[in-house]
Specification:
With about 230 residues, this protein is mainly β. The protein contains 4 helices and 18 strands. The chain is globular. The structure holds manganese (II) ion (MN).
Length: about 230
């Protein structure tokens, strides 16, 4: 189906734009994918292991992405967890590409946190149900400003997250089981990736419970830093 002119929409389409470092332009948010269990130490703390044969993905709605400095503490959870992750932003369409073709589609990167209602996720896992309500709620994917790094592959660099000044997660992108180019290639075999699409690349060990008023600071070497507060 072709897209009709704007005047034909029953209400204004919502396209969300994210800030890019040293730019006045905004990155239009498309589909958001997240890989699970991409660091062996985190897979282990979750009671599983990295699947060496295939990565697995879930998605968050575009509305989950936020650059708010003050994020309202989410409802319906008694066990909200942080997961610091390298986030990749795509600038062009690709389908069924090899890993060696992946980097040309990269627009840039950011530091992100995959906020997770761990209590709801555990219940969903036990019941064999989808993770959407535990992973895809409002503001569940805070990101830093996007660093434009077109065509560049990042597969090493320190990654860490602090809560109220205390280090909770500390690792290196080298420890990812599936590299960025491999993740893009894998996804592209199932889904046509488009400009605006975003991939969260998994978290290392050290996830822990967050509380209202907590201050979260995260950084990735050569990519940038992210800081936000959970407010009541
Ligand atoms: Mn995650």
């Amino acid at each position: 189906m072709t897209e009709l002119s704007k005047s034909h929409f029953v209400f204004k389409p919502i396209v969300r734009g994210m800030a890019i470092e040293e730019s006045e332009e905004l990155f239009p948010v498309g589909k958001v994918y997240c890989v699970g269990k991409n660091y062996a130490d985190h897979a282990k703390e979750m009671g599983g292991e990295v699947d060496k044969d295939q990565p697995f993905f879930f998605s968050k709605p575009p509305q989950a992405i936020t650059q708010l400095a003050n994020i309202p503490f989410p409802t319906q959870t008694d066990n909200l967890h942080h997961e610091v992750e390298l986030v990749v932003f795509l600038k062009s369409e690709c389908s069924n590409i090899s890993a060696s073709q992946a980097s040309q589609h990269i627009f840039g990167y950011a530091v992100g946190v995959d906020l997770t209602k761990r209590d709801l996720q555990v219940l969903a896992k036990e019941a064999g149900r989808p993770w959407d309500l535990s992973k895809g709620f409002d503001n569940s994917a805070p990101i830093s400003k996007i660093q434009k790094k077109e065509g560049l592959l990042f597969d090493q660099g320190k990654i860490l997250l602090k809560v109220n000044g205390q280090i909770k997660q500390s690792s290196n992108l080298l420890n990812m089981a599936w590299r960025v180019d491999e993740l893009i290639s894998w996804l592209s075999k199932f889904i046509t990736l488009k400009p605006g699409d975003i991939i969260f690349t998994g978290t290392p060990a050290g996830v822990s419970k967050l509380n209202p008023d907590d201050k979260i600071e995260a950084e990735i070497e050569n990519i940038g830093s992210l800081s936000f507060k959970l407010v009541r």
